[in-house]
Structure formats: structure tokens, C-alpha cells
Design a protein that fits this description.
Length: 702
């Protein structure tokens, strides 16, 4: 390999596909080429990864700080002026209303180093408890359920390479054919090896096309579905009694709850027929090993934690967790969706996946940070609650790595809250819809221009490397935090605790995470480069032989991470979605993704090739609904909920249930799906119900 080629990883989703970058002669642009040595994708990329360099070009990205002028426009300014204004804005809020009136909102796309620095900055420099991040909208329900049942939450407790060798996979509310295309190979290989794939999705997606069995429940009823399957497993005598006795606790209560969910009752709630339920049980229970994998479908519900718990119960009752080639896993979403939730940008968390309320955790981290444990604030609000408090309790906000004007539930209300802030500072690579509302916009470097680590959906920590020189005028997020610490710390020289070199930050993160559940202390940049990634937990080893801990690709094989080593059954019962359809709003809306756009679209809507493939929003609906409405293919339909109204062209298909419409959420403006969504929160994870709310459809006459 010529030394101008830099092996690195894609900036987008949690698969973190490996790719090679070759800089152009002037060092400003890069070309993507295949990197076959990275095992997760073996060189394959989706269109987003392949076209990612387009967002590096100065035509679409920010290259100068912007400040709000007297006249109200955003105008270019020097870094000195911009940083001074941010420090001034936060300082004024703090002086007038107290530390908790300054909020911080982060993102699961930020590297581990950035997430760590941001969390430390909030607690040490700003002294605020009010920090959370967009991962709350992503996998928080699975994290909460995994923590309860297994004592530890890591997206997948095994590498993807185990999937083709198991006997059956139930994929619940996950559409990897569109959301992680190179991963589809694992499921097709599973079937080539004689295993079976069950897909649970209200839509017959491109992923469901590959399934041996497709169950299409009514949105928001996965909890009942899992309980119905468990009922049948018990009734048919398919539980693994020895495993339940030796490796779990709490079975009796869970068994009783499942027995109350008769298959016929479950059929009525979910729309999945009893013979289909029986077939799913047969496919899942007959092979030696099996897996359940969930994604946003069952998780983004106001009962997401219980729903994931019910699917975990299914694994525990049949002895399919903590054994080779068996287990429950959550497919995380964002590039650093896993690492981003481990190092302290979450409202209740300290680095190493420690709890902010645990006195021992506070003492450990405070020592690494050189502060008094009592000076660390307690847990703050969750993401939606934080956004809802903007302009009232929270008067100033620092936003890094999210675009909530498009991606938050009840987005018109969130937008209005953001507009009511006294002061908003946004760090971004492009002028997103949210950045456009800021008082100060700070332009930052991106993936190919900076080094840092991410943790993929398997819990594999990876090194993203700098391949090119960033344009003049941009700085890294780490530099922004450093400079703000200097300005807000006064005489205290706090900036010393916020190095701008990512490896220096990682060295501190190692110490802060040491001994915690997500222990990175045995991981170094050098190892990451040499070993193509290392799975956490990876404590600093005292092994006299090798001196290094090998990392932990597979969790729970000997014991679960609970006090007694046993997994916990979670007794759950079905309950309805927060907003059931009625006469006024008779249809269900669910939301999700398409392959060519990423999240709020801030990055991918700036790439021509992706826009050509997915130019705008649409409403997917069944021909029966379309007929009743008098809507034709491609004509605009209005979707109205209690939160607002959105308009987008109809896409008519028999691949969706007739009681449900689907909208992707990647666009702003009239077709913004989140104008409609319901911010009803899960009581444990505080996840909003993105996947089910009541709407009515209206024809739009030109
Ligand atoms: N192209 C693309 N890829 C991405 C992203 C992107 O924005 N675009 N984002 C990344 C991120 S952050 C994430 S979190 C992942 C998300 O990855 P996925 O979870 O695969 O994506 P979604 O489309 O949100 O939801 C998956 C499926 O859930 C179904 N669904 C809706 N309601 C229900 C329900 O009530 N029950 C069940 N069982 N299923 C339901 C939808 O029909 C959809 O097909 O994708 C990552 N990859
Ligand atoms: N209706 C509906 N809504 C949803 C979902 C759904 O399924 N349905 N899914 C939810 C989920 S799972 C997620 S993860 C969220 C995601 O939604 P958002 O949080 O809005 O995520 P992105 O669009 O990825 O926003 C990331 C922003 O950070 C910028 N950025 C990228 N890299 C960097 C960096 O290194 N530093 C800085 N400072 N900025 C950077 C990007 O340009 C972009 O503006 O949406 C949620 N919203
Ligand atoms: S699947 Fe995800 S990580 Fe891989 S190229 Fe596409 S967006 Fe990037
Ligand atoms: Mo996500």
C-alpha cells in the first residue's frame, strides 16, 4: 500500500465500514477505495459511505465562524470574536440564572474523545447537570432493558461474524437492507448455511424480502407479540428448564405474565395470526442456537424498555443468551452510537459507563479530573425534556452533533423552544436547520480531517485516522471545548484539562473508564492500529505472560454481569401505545429511514448522487387507504396529527399494512415527519414514541 493511502472508517452509521482514503495532490480532497482487510464489511460500502467525501468540499460546508449581526443575519466573523461571544452568552446566563440554566446537547456521531470532553466540560467548566444527547432518541430503550436483564449493556454481545453460524435470527423492527446494506451479507449467509431469518416489521421491507417468515404486526404491539410467543413456548414445552434454573432468576413471575397472553388475544392485538406465531416458535426453538436482534422498530416506543425486555425473556426462557452463537443484541445506529453512550454525555452518566449517582464512580472520575467529587452535578433532564425546557429553565445551549429541528419529536414545538433561547451556539460541519437558528455557529473538522476513536455496534473500538488537511478557518470540536474552557474558567486555567490532541484525550479516557463497566484502560491507539479494533471491556492487564488483555468479543459466556452472575427475567405485560387511533385520527403513522439519506439529512442532502436517489419525503400507504382518500401515486397527501400537519407525495404499495402509513424523517419543511410525532416518553429510558402515533389523511387539491 503506498503511504499516501490512509485506512479509516465511514463517517456515518454504526457499522463503521472500513475504507481507504487517498488524498488528491493538493491534499484537500480524498478518493474512497476498497479496504478489504476490515472484517465487518470486507470492502463493501453503501452509497452514503462511497460519496462521503462530497461533504468535505468547501462548496457545501462551513469554513468560517458565523455570528448573528444587529440586523439579524448570520455573518462571518473571526474565531476570537465568535468564541468570545459564546463565552459571553454562557457567562451571562450563568450569572443571572445559575449553572443549570446553561444546557449541552451532544450526539452519538461524535468520537469517544469528543463525547468524553463534552461531558467533562459540562460538569467541570459549566457546572451544569443539564446535558444529554441524541442517543436518547436512538437505543436508550435497548440499553435500559439490557442493563436490567444482563447487568451490562453492549449493543451486540458477540461479533457479527457469529450470525451466519447460528440457527435462526429474529430481526425485530430492523431494516438493514436500507440502514446497513453491507451487513445484509451476514443474513444471506445464515440462510445459505441452512439457518432461518424471521423479520418482524409492519412493512414488507427490502430486508423482509429475504426472510423465511415475515410477521407484520400493527405498530406498537411488539410487546404483545413477544409475550404471545413466550406463551406458546411454555405451552409447547419448549423452555430450557436446566438453563433457567442455573443461569437466570425471576422466571415464575414472567411465566405467569406470559400465560395471561393467549395466542388468540395476541392475534387480536397484533394482527399476526396464531399459525404464524406457531411457525415463528418452531423456527426459533428447533435449532441448537438462535438470536433475537432488535433495532428502532420495537425500541422507539413509549414502552420500548418493556418491549425489549419481553424479547430478552424469550431468549432466557429458551436458553439462548450467554451461550455460543446465541443471544440477544441491539443493532445500534449512529457511527459512535455505542461509545457515545459510554463516556459521559448522557444525563445520568460518567465515563466508563459509570452512574453519576454512584458515590464510588463520582470519587473515581473526580480524582482523574482533579476536582472535588461534591462539585460534580447530579443527573439532568433527558433529551426531549431538555429541549422542552429551552427558553424557560434552560436559557442558553451548546449543541454539538445533532439537528433537532428535523430529528426531534413534535419538532415544531422544539423549533419554537430553540428560537426562544437567550443564546444558542452550534458546532457543525454544515449550516444545518438548527445551526441556522444559532447566535454563533462554529465550523468544525470532520472524519477524514481528524483522528479519533469510535465504537461500532459490536462493541469494537476503532481508530478513525486523519487523511487530509482541513480547510483554513475550521477547528476541531476538541479545540472549541479547549478554548471555551479557557474563557469560562477565569483564573482557574481549566483549559489544561481539555487537550486538543485526541490521543491525549483518549489516554485520560482510559484512566477514567478503568474499573467501570465499559473499561477501555487496556486499549491504546497503537493497539487499535495494529489489531483492526479491540472489543471492550478491555482492562489494563496484569497478565505477566503477554501484558495485554485481548479484549472481549463475546460477553456472558460464563456469567452475566449481575451480582450473582444470573440474568434477570423482567416481568412485563402488554399495554397500548400512548395515542391509539380514534374517529378523528383513525390511522397509525410510523417513521424511519431510506437507504440514500442519513438522519436529519444535514450531510446527505448536500450530496447530489444521494439526492438523485432519494429526492424528498413521501407518505407510504396501502392501495385501500389511497382509494378511500382518492389519492394517486405521486400526488400530495396531508398527514395530520394532534401536533401538526405535513404534506408529501403518496407512494402507494401493498408492502405496508392497510391501517398504517410510513414516512421517512430525513427532510425539513412541509414534509417533515417529526411535525407529527408524539413525544410520549418511555418511563425508564425516556425514549419518545417515534414509531407510532394517530393521524388522519387529507387529500390535497392543487
Ligand atoms: N440509510 C440510513 N441508514 C442509517 C441511518 C439513516 O438515517 N439512514 N441511521 C442510522 C441510525 S442512527 C439508526 S438508529 C439505524 C436505524 O436502523 P433501523 O432500525 O433499521 O431503521 P428504521 O427505519 O428507523 O426502523 C426499522 C424498521 O422498523 C419498522 N417499524 C416501524 N414501526 C414498527 C413497530 O412498531 N414494530 C416493529 N417491529 N417495527 C416497526 C419500520 O417499518 C422500519 O422498516 O440506522 C442507521 N443507518
Ligand atoms: N420520526 C423519527 N425521528 C427520529 C428517528 C426516527 O426513527 N423517526 N430516529 C432518531 C434517531 S435513532 C436518531 S440517532 C436521531 C438522529 O438525528 P440527529 O441527532 O439530528 O442526527 P444527524 O442528522 O446525524 O445530526 C448530526 C449533526 O451533526 C453534524 N456533525 C456530523 N459530524 C460532526 C462532528 O464531528 N462534530 C460536530 N460538531 N457536528 C457533526 C451533522 O452535520 C449534523 O448536522 O434522529 C431521531 N429522530
Ligand atoms: S453501511 Fe453505514 S458505515 Fe457502511 S458505508 Fe454505509 S453508512 Fe457507512
Ligand atoms: Mo439512531
Amino acid at each position: 500500500m503506498p503511504d499516501t493511502v490512509t485506512p479509516t472508517h465511514c463517517p456515518y452509521c454504526a457499522l463503521q465500514c472500513g475504507m481507504n482514503l487517498t488524498p488528491s495532490p493538493d491534499g484537500r480532497a480524498v478518493e474512497v477505495s476498497e479496504r478489504a482487510d476490515f472484517p465487518v464489511n470486507r470492502g463493501a460500502l453503501c452509497g452514503k459511505g462511497r460519496t462521503a467525501p462530497a461533504v468535505l468540499s468547501s462548496g457545501v460546508r462551513l469554513t468560517s465562524p458565523l455570528v448573528r449581526s444587529e440586523g439579524g443575519a448570520l455573518v462571518p466573523a473571526s474565531w476570537e470574536e465568535a468564541l468570545g461571544r459564546v463565552a459571553g452568552g454562557f457567562g451571562r446566563t450563568r450569572a443571572e440564572y445559575g449553572a443549570d440554566a446553561v444546557g449541552v446537547f451532544g450526539g452519538g456521531g461524535l468520537t469517544n474523545e469528543k463525547a468524553y470532553s463534552l461531558g467533562k466540560f459540562a460538569r467541570v467548566v459549566l457546572g451544569t447537570s443539564q446535558i444529554d444527547y441524541n442517543g436518547r432518541f436512538c437505543m436508550s430503550s435497548a440499553a435500559a432493558a439490557g442493563g436490567k436483564a444482563f447487568g451490562l449493556d453492549r449493543g451486540l454481545p458477540f461479533p457479527l461474524e457469529d450470525i451466519p453460524r447460528t440457527g435462526c435470527v429474529i430481526l425485530v423492527g430492523s431494516n438493514p437492507a436500507e440502514t446497513m446494506p453491507p451487513s445484509l451479507r451476514y443474513f444471506t449467509e445464515l440462510r445459505e448455511n441452512g439457518g432461518t431469518l424471521i423479520v418482524v416489521d409492519p412493512r414488507r421491507t427490502r430486508t423482509a424480502e429475504h426472510a423465511d417468515l415475515h410477521l407484520a404486526p400493527r405498530p406498537g404491539t411488539d410487546l404483545a407479540l413477544a409475550l404471545g410467543l413466550l406463551h406458546l413456548i411454555v405451552a409447547e414445552g419448549r423452555t430450557d428448564e436446566a438453563y433457567v434454573r442455573e443461569r437466570t432468576a425471576g422466571w415464575e413471575e414472567t411465566r405467569a405474565a406470559a400465560m395471561a397472553h393467549w395466542p388468540e388475544y395476541v392475534e387480536r392485538i397484533t394482527g399476526v395470526s396464531v399459525p404464524e406465531l406457531r411457525e415463528a416458535v418452531r423456527l426459533f426453538c428447533e435449532p441448537e442456537a438462535a438470536m433475537v436482534l432488535t433495532a428502532r422498530g420495537p425500541e422507539q416506543q413509549s414502552k420500548g424498555t418493556d418491549t425489549v425486555g419481553a424479547w430478552i425473556n424469550l431468549c432466557l426462557a429458551t436458553g439462548r443468551a450467554g451461550r455460543p452463537l446465541s443471544g440477544y443484541g441491539c443493532l445500534t445506529g449512529q457511527g459512535n452510537g455505542q461509545g457515545g453512550r459510554e463516556h459521559g454525555q448522557k444525563a445520568d452518566q460518567l465515563p466508563g459507563y459509570r452512574k453519576l449517582t454512584d458515590p464510588a464512580a463520582r470519587a473515581h472520575v473526580a480524582e482523574v479530573w482533579g476536582v472535588d467529587p461534591d462539585s460534580l452535578p447530579g443527573p439532568g433532564r433527558s433529551a426531549y425534556e431538555l429541549l422542552d425546557a429551552l427558553g424557560t429553565d434552560i436559557r442558553s445551549l451548546l449543541l454539538m452533533g445533532s439537528n433537532p429541528v428535523v430529528s426531534a419529536p413534535r419538532a415544531a414545538h422544539v423549533e419554537e423552544r430553540i428560537r426562544s433561547l437567550d443564546f444558542l451556539a452550534v458546532c457543525d460541519v454544515v449550516l444545518s436547520e438548527t445551526a441556522a437558528l444559532a447566535d454563533v455557529v462554529l465550523p468544525v473538522t470532520q472524519w477524514a480531517e481528524e483522528t479519533g476513536t469510535t465504537t461500532n455496534l459490536e462493541g469494537r473500538v476503532l481508530l478513525r485516522r486523519r487523511a487530509i488537511t482541513p480547510p483554513a478557518g475550521v477547528r476541531s470540536d476538541l479545540e472549541v471545548v479547549h478554548e471555551l474552557a479557557a474563557r469560562l474558567g477565569g483564573e482557574r486555567n481549566l483549559e489544561k484539562g481539555f487537550p486538543t490532541d485526541p490521543e491525549e484525550v483518549f489516554e485520560e479516557l482510559r484512566r477514567a473508564s478503568a474499573g467501570g463497566p465499559a473499561d477501555y484502560s487496556g486499549i491504546t491507539y497503537r493497539r487499535l492500529a495494529e489489531e483492526n479494533g479491540v472489543f471492550w471491556p478491555c482492562p489494563a492487564s496484569e497478565d505477566p505472560g503477554t501484558g495485554v488483555h485481548p479484549g472481549t468479543p463475546r460477553l456472558f459466556l460464563d456469567r452475566f454481569a449481575t451480582g450473582d452472575g444470573r440474568a434477570r427475567f423482567v416481568p412485563v405485560a402488554h399495554r397500548a401505545i400512548a395515542e391509539e387511533p380514534d374517529d378523528e385520527y383513525p390511522v397509525l403513522l410510523t417513521t424511519g429511514r431510506v437507504v440514500a439519506q442519513y438522519q436529519s439529512g444535514a450531510q446527505t442532502r448536500r450530496v447530489d448522487e444521494l439526492n438523485a436517489a432519494a429526492p424528498g419525503p413521501f407518505v407510504e400507504l396501502h392501495p385501500r387507504l389511497a382509494e378511500r382518500l382518492g389519492a394517486a401515486e405521486g400526488e400530495p397527501v396531508a398527514v395530520v396529527s394532534r401536533r401538526g400537519r405535513a404534506v408529501a407525495p403518496a407512494r402507494i404499495t401493498t408492502a405496508i399494512r392497510a391501517d398504517t402509513v410510513f414516512m421517512p424523517f430525513h427532510w425539513a419543511g412541509e414534509g417533515r415527519a417529526n411535525t407529527l410525532t408524539n413525544p410520549a416518553l418511555d418511563p425508564t429510558s425516556r425514549m419518545p414514541e417515534f414509531k407510532a402515533c394517530a393521524v388522519r389523511l387529507e387529500a390535497v387539491r392543487p
